[in-house]
Design a protein that fits this description.
heterodimer, A: about 180 residues, alpha/beta, Rossmann fold, five-stranded parallel β-sheet, two-stranded antiparallel ribbon, 6 helices, 7 strands, globular, B: about 250 residues, alpha+beta, Ubiquitin-like (UB roll), Alpha-Beta Plaits, five-stranded mixed β-sheet, 7 helices, 9 strands, about 25% helix
């Protein structure tokens, strides 16, 4: 008599235009991460050494806004290969701090200000084809590029809020009417 | 002492209540403890009716009415919480967020902001509209206060409190539509205004982080909109309310 082991969910997290604070908050779930590891495998993440975004992912948490070409490309890959996409934190949901440059317009002017006008040394804008991704004209919240299924605001979302959302998602019970759990900032 | 005003019977979401003839749906609801969300409305100031967050439905009428600017009537059936109202209120809050540059994470009012609270109350977990990302200059010319138009929702509370309670009328809304902006003394830097008395009532009533004290960091700015209730009551009834009770 054999019991079939329930298949583990395939979970991914990606880090786009953000400060990694949401991932820090993810790690703040502390011992619950062991519980998570019982039911899910982390198949791609900035804290796991996996080079390419895998196929057939059940749920992907996207931290950060779409700020450059690399962000754009990875977000499209995430959508194509994930059943459920979560906008993870304020930068993903609203653009937030990453989008503070939007009112200033053309990113080339901002790059010149930061790398050429302000510093005393090496006054050049870094550029290296294939290594330094070009900035997009405007920073976008994730849902303006790809379809997003769950929004998890907060800067960063507190660990208990992430846990609650993940528990819901992994039990096919998507969070709704969440009250304080959707507070920005 | 009983209030001698004649009363009318109304219903809020099916519950019967006595309201005073002539008062607004909003004032009745506040007094009776029926929650109606609002932003530009502030007890003690004149009506503006600009934000439309306080819309209610009257019986089967398809038109939505702002509770602040609708007078109660006998047998009025007021609905304050329907799917239609919730959808409209949420859309309004989303539009406010999309119109300015509201970045809660770096705002002096983070955690103490009526717009942020309203986003929670209306269930806004993201904004469906394109962010306009307007370019707006912060006015930090005043020695004591800062005005950040990026966070301004043009509720005109500051305009009204300055004109009606302080009597200085420093503030106005200039231009129209998407170009509308708050101006001090017809367009001067605030610090150069000669009519500003430095009283700080505009700062006290601001629902967002648009008006703040100089030197406040993220989440440090606490507004005190209810100061207006005390001042207005003192003026109209000649009595000072207990600050603890007013909040």
């Amino acid at each position: 008599m054999s019991e079939t082991t329930p298949q583990k969910a395939r979970v991914a997290t990606v880090w786009l235009g953000g400060c990694s604070g949401c991932h820090m908050s993810f790690l703040d779930m502390d011992e619950w991460l062991f519980d998570l590891a019982e039911v899910a495998d982390v198949v791609y993440s900035p804290i796991a050494d996996v080079k390419d975004f895998p196929k057939d992912v059940d749920v992907t948490l996207i931290e950060g806004a779409i700020a450059n070409e690399d962000n754009r490309e990875l977000a499209l890959q995430v959508r194509e290969n994930s059943k459920l996409v979560v906008s993870f934190g304020d930068c993903a949901v609203t653009g937030n701090v990453t989008a503070l440059r939007n009112p200033m317009g053309d990113p080339s002017e901002i790059l010149a200000r930061v790398y050429v006008e302000s510093p005393d040394l090496n006054g050049i804008v870094p550029s290296e084809a294939g290594i330094v991704p070009p900035l997009l004209p405007k920073v976008l919240p994730v849902h303006q590029l790809i379809q997003v299924d769950v929004y998890l605001p907060g800067c960063p979302p507190p660990a208990d809020r992430i846990q609650e959302a993940l528990e819901g998602i992994l039990n096919d019970d998507l969070p709704r009417d969440r009250g304080e759990a959707i507070r920005f900032g | 002492m009983r209030d001698a005003r004649p009363s009318v019977t109304v219903t809020f979401d099916g519950e019967e209540y006595d309201a005073f003839a002539g008062e607004s749906v909003m004032d009745a609801a506040r007094r009776l403890g029926v929650p109606i969300p609002s932003l530009c409305y502030l007890e003690g100031l004149s009506l503006y009716g600009g934000c439309r967050v306080c819309v209610v439905q009257i019986a089967e009428d398809h038109r939505l009415r702002p509770a602040c600017a609708t007078t109660v009537a006998q047998d009025m059936e007021i609905k304050t919480d329907t799917p239609l109202l919730r959808a409209h209120r949420k859309a309004i809050i989303e539009m406010l967020f999309a119109e300015g540059n509201h970045v809660c994470a770096v705002c002096v009012s983070n955690g103490k902001c009526e717009l942020q609270d309203m986003a929670v109350a209306t269930g806004m977990d993201h904004v469906r509209f394109d962010y306009q990302a307007p370019q707006r200059e912060v006015d930090a010319s005043h020695p004591k206060y800062v005005f950040d138009p990026n966070r301004c929702i043009l509720c005109t509370r500051c305009v009204r409190v300055c004109d009606e309670i302080e009597g200085a009328h420093v503030w106005d809304v200039a231009f129209r539509g998407a170009d509308a902006e708050l101006v001090a003394e017809l367009g001067k830097p605030w610090g150069e205004s000669t009519s500003c008395t430095w009283c700080g009532k505009c700062v006290a009533v601001c629902p967002t982080g648009a008006m703040a004290y100089q030197g406040k960091a993220v989440g440090e700015m606490q507004h005190h909109a209810n100061v207006v209730i005390r001042l207005a009551t003192a003026r109209t009834k000649g009595q000072w309310l207990d600050p603890e009770e007013v909040g």
